[in-house]
Amino acid sequence: MLSTKVTCNSHGQDSSYFLGWEEYEKNPFDEVKNPNGIIQMGLAENQLSFDLLESWLQNNPHASSFKKPNTNHSIFKELALFQDYHGLPAFKNALVRFMSEIRGNTVTFDPNNLVLTAGATSANETLMFCLANPGDAFLIPTPYYPGFDRDLKWRTGAEIVPIQCSSLNGFRITKSALEEAYKQAEKQNLKVKGVLVTNPSNPLGTSLNLHELDLLVDFVSDKNIHLVSDEIYSGTVFNSPSFISIMDVLKNRNLMNTDVRKRVHIVYSLSKDLGLPGFRIGAIYSNDDCVVSAATKMSSFGLVSSQTQYLLSEILSDKTFTKTYLSENRRRLKQRHEMLIKGLQKAGIRCLQSNAGLFCWVDMRHLLSSDTFEGELELWEKIVYEVGLNISPGSSCHCSEPGWFRVCFANMSEETLILAMQRVKSFVESMVKKNNFQSRHQQLLNRNSRRTKSLPKWVFSLSFDQREVGADER
Amino acid sequence: MAIEIVQQPSVGLSKIAVSETHGEDSPYFAGWKAYDENPYHETQNPSGVIQMGLAENQVSFDLLEEYLEANLEAANWGKKVSGFRENALFQDYHGLQSFRKAMASFMEQVRGGKAKFNPDRVVLTAGATAANELLTFILADPGDALLVPTPYYPGFDRDLRWRTGVQIVPIHCESANNFQITPEALEAAYDHARSMNIKVRGVLITNPSNPLGATIQRKVLEEILDFATRKNIHLVSDEIYSGSAFYADEFVSIAEVLESRNYKDSERCHIVYSLSKDLGLPGFRVGTVYSYNDQVVTTARRMSSFTLISSQTQFLLASMLSDKEFTQKYIKINRERLKKRYEMIINGLKKAGIECLQGNAGLFCWMNLSPYLEDATIESELAIWKTIMHEVKLNISPGSSCHCSEPGWFRVCFANMSEETLEVALSRIHEFIKRKQDRQVLCMM
Question: A76 to chain B: nearest residue by CA?
Answer without folding.
Answer: B65
